[in-house]
Write a structure and sequence with these properties.
- The protein is built from seven helices and 15 strands.
- The chain is of the alpha/beta class.
- It has two domains: about 90 residues, Roll (Spermidine Synthase, Chain: A, domain 2); about 180 residues, Rossmann fold.
- A seven-stranded mixed sheet has the order 11-10-9-12-13-15-14, with helices on both faces. It has a six-stranded antiparallel sheet with strand order 1-2-5-6-7-8. The protein has a two-stranded antiparallel ribbon with strand order 3-4.
- Belongs to the spermidine/spermine synthase family.
């Protein structure tokens, strides 16, 4: 099914879209069902869809990794879409970027070295650079096409890419971490939405990969923080519980926060914030 139809963009749950494109294949056999540690977690947001009216398509190409679409909407400004899933709109992006960046940074007493995994639109980078204590920001974005389109079509988000504190690395963030341990005070993962591989496992649901991030954070001084944007309590409660339980085996402090983001599924987004010490992360 074409997600751009008669002047409208429609975001479908990947598992529902696969069923529609395969003439009614059952959900149980869908390759788009989410899995973590071999456990099925259901569809991304099955049984619902979200639409925005398109004023003009500004960019649409396939990168080495994904389908990249930018369009001007009638009510939400320019919209970035990756593999058919809305990543950011000019109207409401701040409500996600500010939460994911500022929760761990304000909880840390003196964040100097920050790592951002993903975040190619530049929004998290913009917010991190607002903290005067931050001396260096390392950003790992695997898809340089996302960075390029953000610079051209999302200037309010991508304004930090020329900042002198930025060290930009175009590649896999998890691979980067294997060779850069003991370097970061705060690690923020701003990866894209669930796109299962052939195995059905999503990279950010693969707890072996998450462990790589956590091992890097655990070797830092006692108040290091790790933050990741993670889904909606209305749609993904079993998945959230699964990820919280896993992180509590490693971190003494694990908190889950949420905020309203109008163009994300169910209108909300969650944030998993972990700390190496027993401190208040979300209450201050």
């Amino acid at each position: 099914m074409d997600k751009l139809h008669k002047g409208w963009f429609t975001e479908f749950s990947p598992d529902d879209l696969e069923k529609m494109n395969s003439s009614g294949e059952s959900q149980e056999s869908s390759s788009k069902l989410l899995k973590s540690d071999g456990q099925e977690m259901g569809g991304a947001w099955p049984g619902q869809a979200f639409s925005l009216q398109v004023k003009k398509v500004l960019y649409h190409e396939k990168s080495k990794y994904q389908d990249v679409l930018v369009f001007e909407s009638t009510t939400y400004g320019n919209v970035l879409v990756l593999d058919g899933i809305v990543q950011a709109t000019e109207r409401d992006e701040f409500s996600y970027q500010e939460m994911l960046a500022h929760l761990p940074l304000f909880a840390h007493p003196n964040p100097k070295r920050v790592l951002i995994i993903g975040g190619g639109d530049g929004g998290i980078l913009r917010e991190v650079l607002k903290h005067e204590t931050v001396e260096k920001v390392t950003m790992c974005e695997i898809d340089d096409m996302v960075i390029d389109v953000a610079k051209k079509f999302l200037p309010g988000m991508s304004c930090g890419f020329s900042h002198e504190k930025l060290d930009l690395y175009c590649g896999d963030g998890f691979e980067f971490l294997k060779n850069h341990k003991n370097e970061f005070d705060v690690i923020i993962t701003d990866s894209s939405d669930p796109k299962p591989r052939k195995s059905g496992e999503c990279p950010w649901l693969d707890l072996k990969l998450i462990s790589t991030v956590i091992r890097s954070a655990r070797e830092l001084f006692p108040v290091s923080k790790y933050a990741v944007g993670r889904e909606s309590v209305w749609l993904h409660l079993p998945l959230i519980a699964h990820l919280v339980a896993f992180n509590r085996k490693i971190f003494p402090t694990v908190n889950y926060a949420q905020s309203i983001v109008s163009t994300y599924p169910s209108g909300s987004m969650g944030y998993l914030i972990c700390a190496k010490s027993e401190v208040s992360v979300c209450d201050d």
